[in-house]
Every structure is written in structure tokens, then in C-alpha cells.
Amino acid sequence: MHLDDGGLWRDDAAPFPPSVIILHAVSSGDLLADRRYEYARAYLDAGDHAAAADLFLQALERTPGWLPALVGAADALAADGRREEAEPLLREAAERDHDGLFGISLKLAALGLAEVPDAPPAAYVRGLFDDYADRFETALVEDLGYRAPWLIADLIDRVRPGASFARGLDLGCGTGLMAEVLKGRIEHVSGCDLSPEMIGRAEAGRRYQRLVVADAATFLAAADDGYDLVTAADVLVYVGALDTLFPAVADRLAPDGLFSFTVEEADSDGLVLRDSLRYAHGESYVRRVLAEAGLAVVELERDTLRFDRGEPIRGLIVVARHEG
């Protein structure tokens, strides 16, 4: 067992983060099915995948088509090595999960049963972080050794020692760790995040002059400001393909403005969806998409972004400059 990237305890052999089946479950309307579902969750958390699968399936017998139990059964079966049994359940779940809350498209892709989507469902990301907001900073910094904001700040200092910025934008700002680390260096900083709960926490921290509930692409499309500094700390793992976002950032960067971000580094080039349902990006891919957007790499280094299951998660920390 270990604390996962969503701040939840999970078994090391489980193929996916469990939060989407645990946190978005509502009553089936059948008390016995609900109880079997709860017991199944406990077995899944304890690593007894076979027992969990059996109980999820019992819940489904009483309430056919109940989405949380469908997803739970599929996850438990996949973790138990019974992927052929998991596949039809996931495909049925995909037909029922109309808004993408359970991230079924990601699960199918991670199992090699579908093409990797260019981006995760917005509802999946929003739901994940709405639940995570109240323990976000503690779980990341204290439990997972999260370092992305500090690594970004250090690299910016290396590029422009002691520099201050008139206008900054923090994409996927979360509760505001990036703004806290850069406190005093940006005169006016805006933040956007897909999660209303995260924005609420950021507002309480009073680290930003402006906060908006929106994904990065939507915010950038509507923005009319020019920014001297744009940051994205541990955000692009939930964005996926970068060929739309990077040009949008370039369009909002002032001449000579900086864009600094982190990505988990893929073992191969291109875009990779990991079993964690987070995206990783190869260095060549990152450099190519930046260049196509008119952004020049000023500094790029490798470091440990955080830990998962006691293992370091390596990534790229990048500072790019607008060439306009």
C-alpha cells in the first residue's frame, strides 16, 4: 500500500488511481448493493483484488448498469490480471459515463484497448482535484516530496537572477503554491484552474490578484493581457497534447516574456499515457512543440519532481522565451 498522487491509499499492483470510483459513487438505490460496493472498496484498497471484484460483481447483479460498480469491477479485475473480463465492463461504463467523470477513455487507453486520447476528460480532472483540494498542499509537499514550484523558481532565477515581473499567469494554479514561491517577484499575478474547490482554496490564501475557474486553454483564449511570466507547475500531465496550448501561451506572452513549466519525462519521444493516468512527454516532443509555437528553450534540466510509491518521478523543468 502507498499514498498515491491523488492523496489516497492504494495497493501497488492496482492499475489505476482509485479516486474516481471511490469519490464519485452515489447510492444505487439498493441498500444491499451499496453495502457490497463499500466492502468491495475496502478489499480493493487492501489489495485483495479478487475479493473486491467478486463483491463489485455482486453489486452489479442487483443493480445492472450502476456506473460506480461497473468501474470498480473493471479496475479490480484488471488489477487481478483478468483484463479480458475487465474490458466489456469498461466498454459498458464508457457508454454510460457521458461526461467523462470516471476517466474511462484513459483507462481503456492505459490497458491498450483504445487509442491514447489527446487530453483527459475535463470532468475527470475537475472531480479529481475538487476532492483533493482540502489536503492538496499537505499531501503533495509532505507525503510526496513535491518540488515543482521550487524547481521552476530556481530555474527562473538562473535565467534572470533577481528579476521581477509586472504581470504573471499561473496555469493550473491549484491552491497557490507557485504564487507563494514567487511571492514578491510578480506585481500582478493571475491564476486559473479547472477545479472550483482549488480556486476557493487559492482565494483564501490571497496569493493572487485575479483567479478564474477555467482550464488553461479556455483562459488563454479569453485573455487580453500580455504576461511577462507564465508558469505551469505539474499541470501538463493533465493536459496531454501540447500543440494547442503552447501556441496559446505564446500569443499571450509579452515580447521576451518567459514560460516555465514541468513535465514528467517519457522514456520515449512523443506523448505517453502512464498507468497513473497522467501524461508524460519526451524531450524532443517538448522542444519541437515549443519551437513551432515561436518559443525558444532558454534552460532545460532534469530533476525529481516528486515521489510515488517511494520511487522518484523524474521530469523536465523548462524555461522558454517568447521570440517575438
Number of strands: 11
Mean pLDDT across all residues, rounded? 90
Which structural category do the helix and sheet elements fall into? alpha/beta
Catalogue the unreliable spans.
1-14, 18-23
Shape: elongated
Major beta sheet, strand line-up: 5-4-3-6-7-11-10
| CATH top level assignment of the largest domain | Alpha Beta
Tell me the CATH architecture of the largest domain: 3-Layer(aba) Sandwich
Biggest pleated sheet = 7 strands, mixed
Question: What share of residues is helical?
Answer: 40-55%
CATH superfamily of the largest domain: Vaccinia Virus protein VP39
Tell me the CATH topology of the largest domain: Rossmann fold
Count of helices? 14
Task: Name the beta content range.
Answer: 15-25%
Rg from Cα: 20 Å
Summed up, the domain count is: 2
Give the H and E element order.
Answer: EEHHHHHHHHHEHEHEHEHEEEHEE
Protein name: SAM-dependent methyltransferase
Keywords: Methyltransferase, Transferase
GO molecular function, one term: methyltransferase activity
Pfam family, one: Methyltransf_23
